[in-house]
Specification:
alpha+beta, Translation Initiation Factor IF3, 5-stranded mixed β-sheet
Length: 110
């Protein structure tokens, strides 16, 4: 009976496809419109945040809007972004390696 229990546990882990997961995925982000901003709008800036997975067993990353916004703010020196647009990019190689990224762009407010 013990062999069946071990076999059941191994098949459960294989079919769930997840031994370890630590990811954040985007849900929503409230960005001001250009009319709501107090201060000059400058150039359009970009930011990106990604989640990664190997063999569907181990996953990590922060692919959320907040992380992508922080990336854009840090790279541009902006205090906030206005009129933010977001896209999601997925990359997968035969389920061996997967990468899902949230890319944002918006006007930098200094």
């Amino acid at each position: 009976m013990r062999a069946w229990g071990v076999l059941f546990l191994l098949s459960f882990l294989a079919f769930t496809g997840c031994v370890y997961t630590n990811v954040n995925t985007p849900l929503s982000y409230r960005a001001p419109t250009p009319n709501e901003v107090q201060g000059p709008l400058t150039t359009v800036v970009h930011g990106e945040a990604c989640n990664r997975a190997i063999l569907g067993l181990v996953a990590w990353g922060d692919g959320g809007y907040a992380a992508a916004i922080e990336d854009a703010k840090q790279s541009s020196g902006a205090r906030m972004l206005a009129d933010v647009k977001a896209d999601t990019r997925l990359f997968n190689v035969l389920f061996i390696y997967a990468k899902a990224c949230t890319r944002v762009s918006g006007f930098a407010v200094r």
